Amino acid sequence: MKSFYTIPIFVIISFMVLGSGCSSSNDVPIVDTHIHLYDTTRDGGVPWPPESDTVLYRPILPPDFAQVCEENGITATVIVEASNLLADNQWILDLVKEEPDRYIGLVGSLEVGTPDFGANLKTLSSDPRFVGIRIRDKPRGANYFNDAVWRDLKVLSDLDQTLDVLMANFSLEEVDRIAQRLPDLKILINHAAGANIDGKPVDLQWAQALAMAADNPNVHCKVSGLFQQSHLQPSPTNLAFYKPVLDELWNVFGEDRLIYGSNWPVTLRGGSYASYKSIVLEFLEPKGATAKRKILADNAYQFYGLK
């Protein structure tokens, strides 16, 4: 039997890494900046997903993501709150409080332009894991950007909190507008900037709007939601199908302003987590080790202000 002191040091270190948090079988750490957790069995149910969604309508909780971590070498994650209920922000923070190394941040859900926004943001952001909010709906449509909204976005910026933007109801022109008005506000466009991914050359109008938004140094983009932006179930698993859009994102944001995310468990509508991750890794491989590490991990820590 070998004594402890004769075991090679790299073996000891490997054992220690694999025994804590999410293990990583990759040559660089991977931080997934876009997952959702929820419990459909809670009293009152959940605002999302709807019961009609046969793929997603079931409890999606930490043990489920732990399995994803172990199978795919995910080092840590940032949760994005998918509920519009104020109390659900704290529910998430409490749900994962025993796993701070795995769940390093929460992008919350607070409606901007409301009387209590500032007070609620200050309360939640007292927890260092609360890193910002996501906007996804426009209650007033074309009249969304009123004085109260700009006031609250300024509060967000002043508190050094971040803004995720779901492109379903927002445009790249609006991202550009926010970025120019609030140049100190860190903005992260979700889901490949809302691109329509069809395997063909990118839409020129989208590309022009993307370049305009990217001209603002405070605007970043998530390499997330590729499966859902393909609008196909199952989604293609070959890089060539997604490459025109990924190339455009790379061209305008470069290695410093792209950030990895999956949109799990929504990815399950299109395919497995492993197949999603493999597309992104295959795209990044020729970019070099530095760019790969930035996009998979370092940029996330820097953008969200995480240790």
SSE order and pairing:
Layout: H1 9-18, E1 31-35, H2 62-72, E2 76-80, H3 87-95, E3 103-108, H4 117-124, E4 130-135, H5 147-158, E5 162-165, H6 172-181, E6 187-189, H7 204-214, E7 219-223, H8 226-230, H9 239-253, E8 258-260, H10 273-284, H11 289-304
Parallel strand pairs: 1-2, 2-3, 3-4, 4-5, 5-6, 6-7, 7-8
Order of strands across the main sheet: 1-2-3-4-5-6-7-8
Radius of gyration: 20 Å
Computed structural class: alpha/beta
CATH topology-level fold name: TIM Barrel
Low-confidence runs: 1-21
* Shape designation: globular
CATH superfamily: Metal-dependent hydrolases
Strand elements, count: 8
Overall pLDDT metric: 92
Question: What is the top-level CATH class?
Answer: Alpha Beta
Summarize the model shown.
With 307 residues, the chain is an alpha/beta fold. 39% of the residues lie in helices and 12% in strands. It has an eight-stranded parallel beta sheet.
